[in-house]
Amino acid sequence: MCRVIVICNQKGGVAKTTSTVNLGIGLVKEGRKVLLIDADPQGSLTASLGYVEPDELKTTLATIMMAVINEEEIQPTDGILHHKEGVDLLPGNIELSALEVIMGNVMSRELIMKEYVEQLRERYDYILIDCMPSLGMITINALVSADLVLIPVQAAYLPVKGLQQLIKTISMVKRRLNRKLQIQGILLTMVDFRTNYAKDIASRVHETYGAEIEIFHTVIPFSVKAAEASAEGISILTYCPGNKVGIAYKNLTQEVLSYEN
Ligand SMILES: Nc1ncnc2c1ncn2[C@@H]1O[C@H](COP(=O)(O)OP(=O)(O)OP(=O)(O)O)[C@@H](O)[C@H]1O
Predict the structure, then answer these.
(1) Does the ipTM exceed 0.85?
(2) Total domains in the fold of the chain
(3) Dihedral over Cα of 125, 8, 29, 62: its sign
(4) pLDDT digits over 9-25, tens only?
(5) Which of 45, 84, 96, 216 could form a disulfide bond with 41, CB atoms 3.0-4.6 angstroms apart?
(6) For residue 224, which atom of ligand 1 is closest to its CA?
(7) What is the DSSP letter of 103?
């Protein structure tokens, strides 16, 4: 059974892309077939897997969604790239911004991505969708396509307001468009264990949301190696396997796998 996980938070720079890459490749290393979809016009997921000029790619999530809108014939594998670490990637680029505007006039516009993702379910064990930092129509499409939402939260400020908006949007999508949608958990990222502040934020997230939402036991520490790995176009699991961030993503992978049972 394929599981579609959306990595989502409308706050920018909270490690959505880093978590998509390292959880995705972590799952590949555990023998799962994984597709990553870049649903961010910045194309950071695409770039951090080594395709450093996302805007030059011909077939991307935007062109595929446009083909669905125009009812053109597409093969499910069109545009999918194979990364050297064994993960597949449907790239994304700036054309997603234009698409978001065009979609304003399209009938059943929330369902476009789902129509495509459904065709891919039989080919993969996991499909991870990396969202842009906004709750616009592309992100809504990702939530409608998904089974689970993973919410990275940077332990650097108290994210209460932003998270409430996100949780409200997820509940609305669940009520109106995708009844099976579940929040898999909040993932605390970039935690600097040397500071009391980070520890304080972590415990306040537990106090505020712990009763309502799962919080992953795994916490992702802060390390500059995370940025170095993405500049090399590979996961931190391969770039620096013994690094604390790599170890944390391996633990996160095990937690995600434990939901298979
Ligand atoms: N554990 C970590 N320790 C230190 N730096 C990190 C860590 N995880 C990610 N980063 C860095 O933080 C920055 C933001 O991370 P990332 O791009 O994954 O966030 P994002 O939520 O996807 O951003 P956006 O909202 O712009 O799409 C990047 O420079 C990344 O390399």
Answers:
(1) yes
(2) 1
(3) positive
(4) 999 999 999 999 999 99
(5) 96
(6) 4
(7) G
